[in-house]
Amino acid sequence: MSAAATWGGVAAIVISATAGDVLQASAMREIGDLGAMRRTRGLAAVIRRVAGSSRFIIGMVFMALGFFSLLITLSWADVSVVGPASASLTFVANAIAARIFLNEDVSRRRWTAALFVALGVALLAS
Amino acid sequence: MSFRRYLLLIAVAVFAASGDVCLARGMRDFGAVSVANIGGMLPALLNPWIVCGILLLIGFFASYLTALSWADLTYVLPATAISYVMMALLAQRILHEQVTTRHWIGIALVTVGVGFVAGGPTRTTRPSPDSRDKEELSATAGGGEA
Q1: Which domain range does residue A77 map to?
Q2: What is the reported pTM?
Q3: Per-residue pLDDT tens for B51-69?
Q4: CA–CA distance, A13 with A87 (Å, rounded to integer)
């Protein structure tokens, strides 16, 4: 498979994973601390509360799309390239999406970290 | 942050790296899969490596969701970045993939970059306009009472 096919696969993973991550982070923030809930109300109550969240379900659909994109891409490309590259680019996309959609305060320090990540990805891709 | 929460972040990294490597090992038994031949992936779900990978990724998912319930998304992802290093080591040992010096420098930069933010606060959420309105209202009410 060509490099273009590999990076097309990585792009599909990143877009799906970012949408899934943001939706799930939003759902978990709405629900609250799962560890505390499990200790006070039990595991079954936690599972019911999480599975009943529509944001979580839509996030799962995007995560599933990302998962199958990962499986297909791993069948023709090295995991040591696809794994770090897709995860790192997802991190950068998540930083942007978290600021826009989750109102997270992404500081200068976090943007500097994103630059390190982008440089690392460039080396992995070469 | 409590010791239990640090353990949870380590679990996220270990499950993610080992799960991805198991999936990659399993998919090697089936060769290249195209979108047109997506049905050919169904037998892969019975492969022990794929089953093991899926179980590990379920463990990853449970620990990841728990971490997201008390920390920012932009905290959890960087804090678990050590999984990239674990993944490269496992890929070299189990899959016999070639990890070059250039790859190692890339992995180090990624890890340093994402690890840079791990020491910061777990929650940095900016108040939404709605919650700001509520804060202003409660401050006004508090001022009136005083």
Answers
A1: 3-125
A2: 0.73
A3: 999 999 999 989 999 999 8
A4: 9
